[in-house]
Amino acid sequence: MRHVDEYRDPAAARRYGDAIAQITTRDWILMEICGGQTHSIVRHGIDRMLPWGVSLLHGPGCPVCVTPASVVDAAIAMASRPNVIFCSFGDMMRVPGEAGTLFTARASGADVRMVYSPLDALAIARENPDREIVFFAIGFETTAPTTAMAVLQADREDLRNFSMLVSHVLVPPAMEALLSGPHNAVQGFLAAGHVCTVMGYVDYEPLVRRHKVPIVVTGFEPLDLLQGIYMCIRQLEEGRAEVENQYSRSVRRNGNERARAALAQVFTIEDQAWRGMGEIASSGLTLAPAYARFDARKRFPDIVVPTPNPSECISGDILRGLRKPGDCPAFGTRCTPEHPLGATMVSSEGTCAAYYRYRRLEAGEMALRRRA
Ligand code: SF4
Fold first, then answer.
1. Which atom, in ligand 1's list, is nearest to the CA of 329?
2. pLDDT tens digit string along 185-229?
3. Is residue 117 over pLDDT 60?
């Protein structure tokens, strides 16, 4: 496959591994932000090609994983209303809240439909003028522009039976929270290439200045990741902290200006809770006052969600890079993709799902040793 194979060439990967080893003189801890990068690293064994002492922590960049249980519960409560058609991406269907999942709500009679885009939900709204259509808008800066376009379209058509449960989050504030946290060990970041395709990387420049931590915008294929790691370690070894762009075939400094303009028009920024990470300042998007009539929370103001129960799931620590799936006693036994206890095992971008898929025996053994 052209454009894919050229970024997976084993000989070139070995050359990058050797080059990283040559420039590395001490231990370094890097974090890749995006769940897609985590899957590629675990799948292709990128972390095993690195010199001893260079480690990769897996970051919070899985949109499904960071959506709070309370938002999932609000989704279930809305979906369970008699006149509602609730539309969601497939990944969110199995994510557990306190009240179950959207799948279990559907099994109990709720009209929950899987869609690929908010535009599909708009079509359902047009076809069902007597029903209330709610779209579950989750994700990072990559999916938020499509949500914004759908809101603008609904506004143009004056669709009265369409609303959104919005839980979009922003990456730079999460990086700021990680770097400012008391347990931070991250010395360099691989930023998510697709997020930067939309947003550019100007927002990372203040982070780099404030925390003196290199950030390399990086793609998702093995050679992208190895080159991003090389660039990050080279900065660390040279005592530099800058934003560099490994993913220049897709990312420009200012990103996609039209997409950014749509986000600025439709949303305002607010504090937001992340699953397992708590509230992060200025990390969420909410509908701007001009579009508040499409806010499902305002349309269903009486929704009450259950109080969260304590859980043995340690996905909050995993999302902050403090622990890995093998540190969880439930990994591979009480928690599997078929019976997930936490969102990081459900999502196709979740770290626990990546380890279950590609390193099940090894991580499972570690979990067993911890249980013994
Ligand atoms: S293995 Fe399951 S229970 Fe453990 S942290 Fe991952 S999702 Fe949570």
1. 4
2. 999 999 999 999 999 999 999 999 999 999 999 999 999 999 999
3. yes
Give the Å distance between the CA of 104 and the centre of ligand 1: 20
Ligand 1 close to Cβ of residue 315 (< 6 A): yes
Q: Which residue CA neighbors atom 8 of ligand 1 most closely?
A: 313
CB crowding 31-67: b at 16 or more within 10 Å, else e: bbbbbbbbbbbbebebbebbbeebebbbbbbbbbbbb
Three-class DSSP category at 292? helix
Closest CA to 150 of 106, 127, 200, 116: 116
* Residue 307 maps to a domain: no
For ligand 1, whether the C-beta of 366 sits within 6 Å is no
Q: State the residue range of the domain holding 118.
A: 64-170+258-299
Does residue 141 share a domain with residue 228? no
Q: Same domain for 117 and 50? A: no
Q: Which two tokens stand for residue 63?
A: 């949109």
Protein residue whose Cα sits closest to atom 6 of ligand 1: 352
- Cβ atoms < 10 Å from Cβ of 256: 18
Determine if ligand 1 sits within 6 Å of the CB of residue 354: no
- 291 falls within a domain: yes
Tell which atom from ligand 1 comes closest to the C-alpha of 335. Answer: 2
Do 154 and 266 belong together in one domain? Answer: yes
Ligand 1 pocket residue status of 40, Cβ below 6 Å: no
Please tell me whether residues 133 and 34 are part of one structural domain.
no
Whole-prediction pTM value? 0.92
- 3-state SS class at 358: helix
Residue with the smallest CA separation from ligand 1 atom 7 is: 342
Residue 96 near ligand 1, beta carbon < 6 Å:
no
Q: Are residues 160 and 235 in the same domain?
A: no
**Does 4 score more than 80 pLDDT?**
no
CA of 139 to the centre of ligand 1 (A): 20
Handedness of CA 178, 180, 183, 185 (dihedral sign): positive
| Domain co-membership, 87 together with 152 | yes
Q: Do 145 and 265 sit in the same domain of this protein?
A: yes
Task: Report pLDDT digits (tens) over 257-303.
Answer: 999 999 999 999 999 999 888 999 999 999 999 999 999 999 999 99
What is the number of structural domains in the chain?
3
Say whether both 124 and 71 belong to one domain. Answer: yes
